[in-house]
Write a structure and sequence with these properties.
about 35% helix; two-stranded antiparallel ribbon; about 325 residues; binds calcium ion; Inosine-uridine Nucleoside N-ribohydrolase, Chain A; binds alpha-D-ribofuranose; alpha/beta; eight-stranded mixed sheet
Length: about 325
């Protein structure tokens, strides 16, 4: 089994990622930590608790993390994409949580779990990287305990939030810079360049709605998100960015990767939050690289995600 911590800002696609992990026997879900992002921390935390309840996993500890970026104020949320509550205004359709957050914060909980771990732990950051930057800066001793970071974020040929920047990186570029360029932790980066090629369609969503209680519960959360893709991408479907990253956690190698150094633009020009991959330096042993997810068998990937979630309780 793979010990896993999910750091998340639920968020509709985060909801699918959490459900995918919860339904996967390969995964030992140690904790879910929350961060600001799609919506504010209060909502992302409440959503995480409700989603674990839906998945029958209320025993998994939830800890609150950062409610703001490391340095500069976060320009705005993504309520226009995910709804004011982060789940298309439908968070109330999820079960009331039977447990609250644990008293310690996200960074403390992650550090405690990593220090206690007897095998490498995977961390899946699928929101802004603020908690991860804080963890690595305040507890560098845990780095050898991290098997790998599997991060949903970045856009090498442009963004989804500005022309240059993907939302998670754009929300806290300084944190992304620290994690992607300043720490020697094995890292897979799953950028929108790949996730945008992996949209699910109406038939996939119909099959989801016909699944078990978890699948049906997720289906109720999608309308605002689906409307966003109809309006902005001219197609009826969803891009479940975070679930694609979690598929790599559960089935290592389902995404094909290439090693490359990644720099993050932290100036305040039009490229703020851009992730720049300099392939010319990939072979230089002195340069820190990350494994960038560049390709996948899309049909196989989406069938895997659907199958796992519809089998869920
Ligand atoms: O750009 C997509 C990412 O930003 C996803 O993690 C989505 O949930 C939002 O956080
Ligand atoms: Ca997210």
């Amino acid at each position: 089994m793979t010990p896993l911590i999910i750091d998340t800002d639920p968020g509709v696609d985060d909801a699918f990622a959490i459900a995918l992990a919860a339904a996967s026997p390969e995964i030992d879900l140690l904790a879910v930590t929350t961060v600001f992002g799609n919506v504010g921390l209060a909502h992302t935390t409440a959503n995480a608790l409700r989603l674990l309840e839906l998945c029958g996993r209320s025993e998994v500890p939830v800890a609150r993390g950062a409610d703001r970026p490391l340095v500069h104020p976060c320009p705005h949320r993504a309520a226009d994409v995910h709804g004011m509550d982060g789940l298309s205004g439908q968070s109330g359709t999820l079960p009331e949580p039977t447990r609250g957050v644990v008293p310690r914060g996200a960074v403390d909980l992650m550090a405690a779990l990593l220090n206690a771990a007897t095998e490498p732990v995977t961390i899946a950051p699928i929101g802004p990287l603020t908690n991860i930057a804080l963890l690595l800066a305040t507890h560098p001793e845990v780095k050898p305990k991290i098997g790998r970071l599997v991060i949903m974020g970045g856009g090498l040929a442009g963004g989804n939030t500005t022309a240059a920047a993907e939302f998670n990186v754009w929300s806290d570029p300084e944190a992304a810079h620290r994690v992607l360029s300043g720490e020697d932790v094995p890292t897979v980066l799953v950028p929108v360049d790949l996730t945008h090629r992996c949209a699910v369609d109406a038939a996939w969503l119909d099959a989801l709605a016909g699944g078990g209680p978890v699948a049906k519960g997720l289906s109720l959360l999608t309308e605002t998100y689906r409307q966003h893709y109809r309006q902005h991408q001219g197609r009826d479907g969803l891009v479940l960015h975070d679930a694609i990253a979690l598929a790599e956690v559960i089935r290592p190698g389902i995404l094909r990767t290439a090693a490359c150094p990644v720099a993050v633009e932290c100036s305040f020009g039009p490229s703020r939050g851009a992730t720049v991959a300099d392939r010319r330096l990939a072979a230089d042993p002195r340069v820190q690289t990350v494994q960038i997810a560049v390709d996948t068998d899309v049909d196989d990937l989406l069938a895997f995600v659907l199958g796992r979630i519809t089998q869920g309780r």
